[in-house]
Amino acid sequence: STNIIAIVGRPNVGKSTLFNRLVGRRQAIMDNESGVTRDRSYGHGDWTGKYYTVIDTGGYVHGSDDIFEGEINKQVELAIKEADVILFMVDVEAGLTGLDEEFANVLRRSDKPIYVVANKADTNARAHQMGEFYALGLGIDIFPISSQSGSGTGELLDEVVKHF
Ligand code: GDP
Ligand code: MG
């Protein structure tokens, strides 16, 4: 099987930071720093002997908070179509936003396994704030992670690769 993981979510939640960590290759970092708006980036990685392809679906200029309904639909529909597992990323620092809910509403159309990834859980206090995302009523489970430090990403991958 192809073992495709797609990362979706609104701008600035940390999708590309997680992508780089899951791929762990310099090439991915260079692609993301090029400043070119692109639909998606693909990278390869492995965890406990299982190989996967990860898609960073955020196709807009780095640092921009702007995203339109059409882009949300496009990003999520791409993920639903191509992925075997979807990581829906939210940001515990910012909390639950209207855009997160818009993404969640499109994701509800999917029958693919979804995990809610509560990023920027850099401290235990921050990790506890993930509770508010249960209100989304979406996903198999919520995983608090810090894409920056890598904490929690191992536990997340342990679950994800069970689908492969
Ligand atoms: P994207 O737009 O969803 O791809 O988000 P990026 O990966 O570009 O990250 C957006 C911002 O959040 C950047 O300034 C990152 O350094 C920051 N960021 C990403 N992950 C973390 C994290 O785990 N903790 C904190 N504190 N900041 C993070
Ligand atoms: Mg990005």
UniProtKB/TrEMBL annotation:
Entry's transmembrane regions: none
Binding site for GTP 1: 9-16, 56-60, 119-122
EngA-type G domain sequence ranges: 3-164
Subunit (UniProt): Associates with the 50S ribosomal subunit.
Reported function: GTPase that plays an essential role in the late steps of ribosome biogenesis.
Homology family: Belongs to the TRAFAC class TrmE-Era-EngA-EngB-Septin-like GTPase superfamily. EngA (Der) GTPase family.
Name of this chain's protein: GTPase Der
Recorded name of the encoding gene: der
Parent-record interval covered: 2 to 165 of 437
